[in-house]
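Re: the 212-residue chain
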Amino acid sequence: ALKSKGLKDDEINTALQSVDVEPQSPMGKDAPNPQVMLFATLGMVMVLYITVLLYGVNVMRSILEEKTSRIMEVMLSIASAKELMAGKILGVGAVGLTQVAIWVATALIFSAGPIAAGADLLKGVLSLNLLIFFAIYFLLGYVLYSTLCAAVGSMVNSEQEAQQLQFVIMMPMILSVVVIMQVFQHPNSPLAFWGSLFPFTAPLVMFTRIAM
């Protein structure tokens, strides 16, 4: 059929030659394993979510405890409300960062072998820029939610009242975790874009977009 079209034998042989195709990731030739990137990013997002949630609640309970024990009245006589709130947020944040640092150091000491074995697997995933953005969004998210929790702690008089308002404050963070898989698959979708602009969902959504 090809000869009837006027093609010569060498042209027919060239046209029928098989082509070797090497599949590559759309992110580039040396891109990391997509599954490794997904689980590594998901792990960092969950650490970000849990730590912000945990230490924000600690700020609220600390303020509530000082209110019920009348310590706050004494402290307000020597410092302003803004100074007390800033000191509480920075103090609990420093304790939280110290605790996380101890956990990481302990894991590195007792897991030197597995970490060394998995270093090649995580190569190209945990970059310096990603770790810097993780620290930035952890601090910004912690300050935002700790301030909200501090406001709740200053308004209520019991643990039961605090728990009712606590769920309302943490709802955007919970919503961020719910939609995070959609952001993984489509980091430039309208949902991911607007989620990264809304301050209460930005710490998790924007960090996920940067990682992906």
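The chain has ten helices and no strands.
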